[in-house]
Amino acid sequence: MNLYGIKTCDTCRKARKWLDAAGVSYRWHDLREEVPNEDTLRHWLDEVGVDNLVNRRSTTWRGLDDPDREQVRTAEGALPLLREHPALIKRPVIDTGQVVLVGFTDQTGTTLLELP
């Protein structure tokens, strides 16, 4: 299982703490240090869609100009911006190889424990 996020993100910290307490092993990827490649981003976009992957409440989103925001309406348009601005990715992203989950709630944890 791979967990993608940012060290200072409270939701990422919550996810890591929960996974550690549940004894779930994972590999941590800091999005600012390890920007996902295009294939990984395409996979996430295919699995969860642009609306679920792009963090439109982030400071980075608010800093984009209107043409860039318009570009993010499609997966193809979002790809270069997500590579250039990884903080636009909602966090955390959990990629189990079977499923991609974005964000973390208690329900997310339950879903992870129910996977084979």
Keywords for this structure?
single chain, alpha+beta, Glutaredoxin, four-stranded mixed sheet, 50% helix
CATH superfamily: Glutaredoxin
CATH architecture identity? 3-Layer(aba) Sandwich
Return the structural class.
alpha+beta
CATH topology annotation: Glutaredoxin
What is the H/E string?
A: EHEHHHHHEEH
How many helical stretches? 7
Strand order of the largest sheet: 2-1-3-4
Low-confidence stretches: none
Q: Can you identify the CATH class?
A: Alpha Beta
For the terminal residues, how far apart are their CA atoms?
12 Å
Rg from C-alpha positions?
A: 14 Å
Number of self-contained structural domains: 1
Please give the number of β-strands: 4
Please outline the major beta sheet: 4 strands, mixed
Overall geometry: globular
Query: Mean pLDDT across all residues, rounded?
Result: 94
- Report the portion of residues in β strands: 5-15%
How much helicity do the residues have? 40-55%
